[in-house]
Amino acid sequence: xxxxxxxxxxxxxxxxxxxxxxxxxxxxxxxxxxxxxxxxxxxxxxxxxxxxxxxxxxxxxxxxxxxxxxxxxxxxxxxxxxxxxxxxxxxxxxxxxxxxxxxxxxxxxxxxxxxxxxxx
Amino acid sequence: xxxxxxxxxxxxxxxxxxxxxxxxxxxxxxxxxxxxxxxxxxxxxxxxxxxxxxxxxxxxxxxxxxxxxxxxxxxxxxxxxxxxxxxxxxxxxxxxxxxxxxxxxxxxxxxxxxxxxxxxxxxxxxxxxxxxxxxxxxxxxxxxxxxxxxxxxxxxxxxxxxxxxxxxxxxxxxxxxxxxxxxxxxxxxxxxxxxxxxxxxxxxxxxxxxxxxxxxxxxxxxxxxxxxxxxxxxxxxxxxxxxxxxxxxxxxxxxxxxxxxxxxxxxxxxxxxxxxxxxxxxxxxxxxxxxxxxxxxxxxxxxxxxxxxxxxxxxxxxxxxxxxxxxxxxxxxxxxxxxxxxxxxxxxxxxxxxxxxxxxxxxxxxxxxxxxxxxxxxxxxxxxxxxxxxxxxxxxxxxxxxxxxxxxxxxxxxxxxxxxxxxxxxxxxxxxxxxxxxxxxxxxxxxxxxxxxxxxxxxxxxxxxxxxxxxxxxxxxxxxxxxxxxxxxxxxxx
Lengths: 120, 494
Prior knowledge:
The complex is a heterodimer of chains A (120) and B (494). With 120 residues, chain A is mainly alpha-helical. Chain A is 78% helix and 3% strand. Chain B is mainly α and 494 residues long. Chain B has helices at 2-19, 27-34, 39-50, 53-66, 72-95, 100-108, 111-144, 148-165, 172-199, 207-211, 224-238, 243-249, 255-286, 296-304, 307-344, 349-369, 375-399, 405-428, 434-441, 444-461, 470-478. In chain B, helix 3 (39-50) packs across helix 9 (172-199).
């Protein structure tokens, strides 16, 4: 009774019917192929730039913060002076956490690119 | 007992080199090995090769001497891998390049850039090797009373024998083992030291130290803020340009694994660098007279514990220190010798032998002749040169299509040349006073921006020198390997 019917717009079907798969566009360095490559580079570069910006703010901000805010220099975390707690301990798990998030997002970007390019 | 430990480490290294599994050094062997090596092993191997005498002994010594500002060194040496991860790790692996000159050639399609990169690899390698030898001499003198030249000569000989016999370096598992050896050799004594510290009623710092030594930017060094920022820039950006690190990325099966390996490297280095800070702090409490030397890690077990246990623990850290000198020096020697042999002497087994001797003899001569600076300071200068030359080359090469051959060459000459000049001035004539002294002692803050600016500006002025194959190279660098794409047919030599 209940037969499944694919509900698709004829327009999208038409748009998808390409002469070439996208990988060939890239191989032949057509304008479309270049567009695919530029979009991949842009996404990955934006991600890298984002991580670097956060890093610059944290790492570049710390010496200034310690210089300008004397309270911060003298604060204690569990008996350890805050600057020591940050530079000799807490900053390392923060690096690893940031790296983990980056790796996850970078792989996701690559999967999206692969899906886009391999879709016929 | 410490002498016995040194002898054991040396003999073990020679035996592994001479009789161990004779993996050859060809790129294809690396490639075959890559299929079976997991990110954890690979990352341990990178850590084993990366943690040199500067990390093992130098940091704790500098922290004891100058205080908290020196904590930026280990932070930078770890954080450098985060920058490396996001900007270069996967594309570098995908490039298929085996050395930095390989990458330069693949991306810019120019032999001139390749040669320039080769010269820079040799200079950075020598600059990194020199303090390893110096430091080995100081360690051997501290534990046995031997003359200063003996330790350096010993390490240089063992490294040369090792590299010439073709073992050690290419065996990922040996390098991976070195990381865990170094971690144990530093962590185990620290447990005993902390127990003694608790037993003594947890003594704190002297009142004066609590006000200056322990507080950021108050150690009385001139231009402390400038030096701190310059150090941060050099270490964060220099890591990606170290010749012996890059070659390990080739052992990853693909770009994705290269990223994961870097993630593990970050965790391993973070775990390791918790230790030198503790040594530096305990040293300031128990043995402030050691300020100005690299010896705190070696002396502390004797000072705080003494007796047979103290001797045993001293022997353990001494063994760890020599493992650090050997593993880093071997890795660097192979990289330097490879470049000298292939790019300057024309390749072949005979030139590799001559190149190995050159690669070891020159820094050994420098080590005996130049004045002894703290090991971590000189290694810091090597980072500054790498950050001013290879960092712009890699970052712009990977992300900017309009980089031209002329631009890359000009940037390498400007950044690398200026940084090298500053380094030579520091080693030969320094330390200097005033603003100029600070600028020369920590060149990265000005030489890195100059290198980037020159590379970009000259590339804009010479748009006709964009390498013709740049489109294909970008596909190769950035697309995941499982996509069926044309990536060009460039292969590294040798």
